[in-house]
Amino acid sequence: MPKQSTTTQNTNSLEKTNKTEQGLYAKFHLQHPQSRFALNVDLILPDSGVTAIFGESGSGKTTMLRCIAGLERAQQGHFVMKGETWQSDTVFLPTHKRPLGYVFQEPSLFPHLTAKGNLEYAIKRSGIPLPAGLYDQIIDLMGIESVLANNSQQLSGGEKQRVAIARALLIQPTLLLMDEPLASLDNARKQEILPYLEKLKSTLKTPILYVSHSVEEVMRLADHVVLMQDGKVATQGAIEEVFAQLKSPLLMNNDTSVLWQGQIIEQDARWHLSKVNCAGSKLWIRNNGDDIGQTIRVRILATDVSLTLSPHDDSSILNKLPVTVLDIVPDQDPAMALVRLQTEKNTLIARLTYRSVDHLALAEGKTLWAQIKSVALVR
Ligand SMILES: Nc1ncnc2c1ncn2[C@@H]1O[C@H](COP(=O)(O)OP(=O)(O)OP(=O)(O)O)[C@@H](O)[C@H]1O
Questions:
Q1: CATH of domain 257-378
Q2: Using CA atoms, how far apart are residues 228 and 51, in angstroms rounded to an integer?
Q3: CA 199/CA 174 separation, integer angstroms
Q4: ipTM of the assembly?
Q5: Which of these, 61, 337, 373, 376, is most buried using a 10 Å CB contact count?
Q6: Best of 3, 37, 59, 73 to mutate for ligand 1, by most ligand atoms within 8 A of CB?
Q7: Which residues belong to any copy of the ABC transporter domain (predicted)?
Q8: pLDDT averaged over every residue in the chain
Q9: What is the CA angle 109-114-117, rounded to 5?
Q10: Alpha helix (H) ranges present in 222-273?
Q11: Do the domains spanning 16-245 and 257-378 agree at the CATH topology level?
């Protein structure tokens, strides 16, 4: 059991600092005495939207979240949230004094209370009066009205987790920490909860740090990604940039893909297609009922991208874009290469055999055409 937090200052007065009046500043150095693992991070993160802490098992995602929550005390630690210091050389706010909500992998509801009882307990514990309408808004946001009277043991896994998220929100946190909140659920339950998380993200202003090792979840929810590797930050940035960088073996496999964001600019009713403009690169996708002007995210798998020296019109492929080779990165499979390509403003990745790389004489700066066999709408 990690050592519980202790107070080293009067927590009534949160120390103000001008270090990061906006944003989150997180710097931790932690070494577990019984393990070789060390966490070493020094980050400034956005104070809005969803930041995914993404990485392989054991890379230190949970440890970082626990340091931020004050559940784990780093030998050296500094955490500033919008100008309020939660930890420094002289400050250590205990967890219960930090204005945060924490959602764990396993929803930890009180089994002897109803869903409503769990929520009321959290509101009472927080000691912050609820503004009019917030309770109903959160219940509605999580879609739990119909299960409020149920004993928490009668709830399904998905319902329990939605109640746990509502409970975390009712504390009115300035930061919401979510540690693999969908990991204990089967795929059907995950698909059921993801739209609630999307709605939560677009409705509430609370910044969310979301730990996950699921590319699908990260691509759907995150705006910003911190990629963790061996206790360090391999890279961080806007989600499109991180997935385009190939900075981790986690991103270099059969599922290697890029994420593009764009707006629907045209509908083709006859063929049930929509045209989406992703920073100048225009793609046809299946019409999923989105209106013109709607912002969407699409995922393009590297295995769905092939390259040709000239734009072929005698192929079934709808999406063809002019591209320039940025670089050629070895795949984990020695037969395969990941070719990073520049489109107008986006990066695209093609997974090809080295034989094809040689056949097309691919090299940095070469211009050619990318054919995109399939584009998946992310939602
Ligand atoms: N209390 C502890 N004492 C010793 N070692 C620990 C302790 N907690 C975590 N570790 C080790 O620290 C490393 C990072 O663990 P952490 O749980 O942060 O990784 P993670 O990226 O969240 O992994 P996962 O995705 O599997 O949850 C692991 O090697 C783990 O065994």
A1: 2.40.50.100
A2: 13
A3: 18
A4: 0.95
A5: 61
A6: 37
A7: 14-255
A8: 90
A9: 85
A10: 239-245
A11: no
